[in-house]
UniProtKB/TrEMBL annotation:
One of the GO BP terms on file: regulation of polysaccharide biosynthetic process
The protein's name: Sigma-E factor negative regulatory protein RseB
Domain MucB/RseB C-terminal, chain residue ranges per copy: 277-372
Keywords: Membrane, Periplasm, Signal, Transmembrane, Transmembrane helix
Gene label: rseB
InterPro entries in alphabetical order: MucB/RseB_C, MucB/RseB_C_sf, MucB/RseB_N, MucB_RseB
Localisation: Periplasm
Transmembrane segments: 21-41
GO terms under cellular component: outer membrane-bounded periplasmic space
Annotated family: Belongs to the RseB family.
Originating species: Glaciecola punicea ACAM 611
Any one Gene Ontology molecular-function term assigned to this protein's record: antisigma factor binding
Domain MucB/RseB N-terminal: 84-269
A Pfam family of this chain: MucB_RseB
């Protein structure tokens, strides 16, 4: 088996989850390798960016009052236990969903350049929920959400919209909107107070119960409850990726940005044909603790048109896709590679080829791929 470690800019966040099947073809394998040719950020630059100073946006007295009143309402509605990690995670979710804010942050990793983002979210006066995420480097990548419609704009691709209640960005949705999803597969631990970018924060550690997935450290602002910093580590404790806030503003003026967006000018929702679940002729014997089967059906590989049996499992924080096809239809040799935090393993036993794709350690992806058992082989 060939093991390769490559880097990937990972700017196509939507296509990361919507089209993982293209990784099954040799053409896409070469596409990934092509991305590896982008130059790495210098060590000095990474060091400076890790020490990014927090800048608080200057606000008027009325704006500050509005934001603090909203936070006070959240705290009054909930009995808050400052010694509970779950309470802090729920406070993050409540704040995210009930106040209007604008946050600038950077995402960096040891193997690729730093990517700056601006993230806006607002609860509109008419009750609508609005959100926007923009990548500030390069030609631009932007997502805009109005209620459950997410519009995606990427240079080189036709703009489109999908149905979703959240934007798919660098910060996992489970942390922001549904922390209860973590309970089955992870331990959530309160580590105490720390200072991040000049502000006091509560540090929270998220560790998979069976040590089969990456671990996370979050730092939540004590004053607002919002996320100031997020680190992702591999199984050996090495830093894989870091997100850090550089500017944060809570105020209702963020709503003005969305008033300028004409909903009728956003691209229409892409039509998709619903696929019903159907039993597959194989089983997945190894599943990390807390992961459950979300869907299983037949699909066709987008580039080749070849049929593949598909299953997705999830623990609420991480989704993993498994594809099984006839070995005679496979167009590439066995591979095991990582692109930043995503692992891709493809192996064959001469009869079937199994491909596993997900933001999990390479060891876990390999173990899952090797655990496929054909039902016809059972005694």
């Amino acid at each position: 088996m060939k093991t390769v470690v490559v880097q990937n800019k990972m700017t196509l966040l939507y296509f990361k989850k919507q089209l993982p099947a293209i990784l099954l073809s040799a053409a896409v394998f070469m596409f990934i390798i092509t991305f590896a040719l982008y130059p790495l950020a210098s060590a000095a630059q990474s060091s400076n960016e890790a020490q990014t100073q927090f800048e608080t946006q200057t606000e008027t007295q009325a704006e500050t009052k509005s934001g603090l009143e909203s936070l006070a309402e959240i705290n009054q509605e909930n009995t808050f236990d400052v010694m509970s990690a779950d309470a802090w995670m729920n406070r993050l979710s409540n704040t995210i969903n009930q106040v209007s804010f604008e946050i600038s942050y950077v995402v960096s990793s040891p193997r690729r350049e730093t990517m700056p983002y601006v993230w806006r979210r607002a609860r509109m006066e008419n009750g609508d929920s609005a959100e926007q995420l923009s990548l500030l480097n390069g030609p631009g990548f932007e997502q805009i959400r109005i209620n459950n419609k997410v519009s995606i704009f990427e240079p080189g691709f036709t703009p489109l919209s999908i149905r979703s209640d959240f934007i798919d960005g660098p910060i996992p949705n489970a942390f922001l909107n549904n922390p209860d999803l973590l309970k089955a597969g992870y331990e959530v631990l309160l580590m105490g107070r720390n200072r991040v970018s000049g502000r006091m924060a509560q540090q929270i550690r998220v560790i998979s119960k069976d040590k089969s997935r990456y671990q996370y450290n979050l730092w939540l602002d004590e004053q607002t409850g919002l996320l100031l910093k997020l680190n992702m580590y591999d199984l050996q404790g090495e830093l894989l990726e870091q997100m850090q806030v550089t500017q944060l503003s809570i105020n209702d003026d963020v709503q003005q940005y969305f008033y300028n967006i004409q909903a009728e000018q956003l691209p229409p929702v892409a039509s998709t044909q619903a696929t019903e679940n159907q039993a597959l002729p194989w089983t997945l014997e190894f599943v990390p603790t807390g992961m459950q089967k979300v869907t299983e059906n037949l699909r066709r590989i987008s580039l080749t048109g070849q049929p593949a049996e598909y299953m997705m499992v999830s623990d609420g924080l991480v989704d993993v896709s498994i594809y099984v096809m006839k070995a005679s239809d496979a167009s590439q040799e066995d591979i095991a590679l990582t692109t930043d935090v995503t692992s891709i393993v493809s192996i064959s036993d001469g009869r079937i080829q199994v491909t596993v794709v997900g933001e999990i350690p390479l060891e876990t992806a390999s173990k899952m791929a090797s655990s496929i058992v054909l039902k016809s082989d059972r005694p």
